[in-house]
Every structure is written in C-alpha cells, then in structure tokens.
Amino acid sequence: MTSVTVRVPAKVNLQLAVGPRRDDGYHDLVNVFQAVSLFDEVTATTGPGAGGPLTSGDVTASVVVEGEAADQVPLDATNLAVRAAFAVGARAGRPVDVALRIRKAIPVAGGMAGGSADAAAALVACDELWGLALPRDELMDIAADLGSDVPFALLGGTAVGTGRGERLTSLAGGGEYHWVFALADGGLSTAKVYAECDRLREATGEPAAWPEASARLLAALEAADAKELGESLTNDLQPAAVLLHRPLSRTLAAGREYGALGALVSGSGPTCAFLAGSADHARELALALDVAGVCRATVTARGPVPGATVIGATA
Known about the structure:
By secondary structure, the protein is α+β, with helices and mostly antiparallel strands. It contains 10 helices and 13 strands.
C-alpha cells in the first residue's frame, strides 16, 4: 500500500480518580473512559512528505498538521504520532519511510487526548502501510509505552483504565449518550494540573485515597441510565483545573443552569463536558452556552464509538 487513512476518536473521562503520586512521578488512576464522535484523521503515505525529515534508526518520517489549532502541534520528534511511527518502524526489520498528515478536530491541549489519539491512529496506519500485521497485544504494548491514554484510543468504546490508565477493561452495556463540549481559550498542561492537584492536597492535608471505580457510575452505565450517569460524573483533577483556568467555573455553572444532566472538566481540561438527555437536548444546550458567551465554541458528539479505525487505503 502507498497510503492508509485512520480515523480516531476523542475521549471523555466519566470518572477520573487520582491516587497518590508514585515514585516514578506518575499517579495510580482509575479512569472510566468513553470514546466520542469527535475525530482526528491520520494519513500515512509511503515516501517523503512536506514536513522536514525526521529519523530514528532505519525509520524516516515527516509530519504536517491541519485543522483545529494546528499551529500548536509540534512538528518534530516530540510529536506522539511521529514517535508512534518510529516505534512501529523499529519492528519492520528493514528501512521504512512515512509521511504523516494529521487532520485535527479534537481540541489541542483540551483534556480530550487528541495527541494520544493521533499516536494510536499512526500506530494502526503504519502497521497497515508496511504490511506488518502486528498482533493487537503488541500494538497495545507499544501504545502504553507512548502514553497513558494511547491504548484507549486504540480500543474505543467505554472502558475502565487502571495503573496510569493504560490497563484497560472494556465495559459492556447498551445505550448511546449525547455530549456537549465547551471549548476554552488556550490550553492546560497536564503536568501542571497534576502538580496543582498534589499541591491542593498537601495544602488541605487531604490524603490521596486509593482510587476505585465508582459502583454507582458503573451501575448507571450497565443500566444505560443517562440521568444517573450524569449525577455520577467525577474528576479529581477538576478543582486544580478550575484554579488554573478560573473561567471554567462559570462555564460549568452555565451548563448546569441550562439543564445538563451532568457537568465536569474533561481530563486535565480545559474542555468542559456536559451530558445531555438526547441529541435535540445537546443541540439546545450547545446553543445556550454559545449565546451565554461562556466558552470559545461548542461541539456536540455521541458516544461510545469505536477506537482507531482504517477508513481508506490506496495501493
């Protein structure tokens, strides 16, 4: 093949429970993820591309980015999609090259794992492009080495993540959920939000409890009860994110005022997620938030949706 395009979803955290900081600097987490229909697309093409050449061993890569906040995405070897290409290429056993084109719709630095999603898409695209047919377990191991959220972007659906969030258990259950995402001006550094969470706990003397999945939230998912799910949404990073980006408190309050079933900061923020009762309710809620002027923009989405999926290929 000469070109492979992969579509990959954003995620929203239905629960993010943050445990004590570990010796390696990470935190033990319980993440209940849901993949939602806000997608990036990554196209991997054989040969040199428009971006500058980047090399690692026998792998040569280039990357260009289009769309939402493209100018904020790195174009060097720190780009997670490039790192994913290097990691897959290292298993090819021969010199390989790839030009990556990323089309962004997932907010950059918005707490919806856009960079991790692009890495997952690049893993799938390069594996297909080079005809490696790596076992799924091996792709998941590579994904976990790249970042805590990358394995879920491969998996999709709804799942519980433990450890750093990379050890996943899929959750069965029916139901479709309708979301409104309020996009903020600027972004938040995940590392800074975690550091602020640690600081707040130290300042208040609140011990970091061992994280556990919420029985109430899991029961709501099993019953496909959107109202109960909305009341069960939690994020231990939310106080820290709100302190670092004060306008979020106004955005969250507005969403609740306008009838959201549930409201929370998505991941490390600053995107705010609102659960709606239906597709029509989501559209009405998005319009109300836009009119209120409490965010830069809104988008609606549904979940759960599949993880990274090949949507096109040319020979």
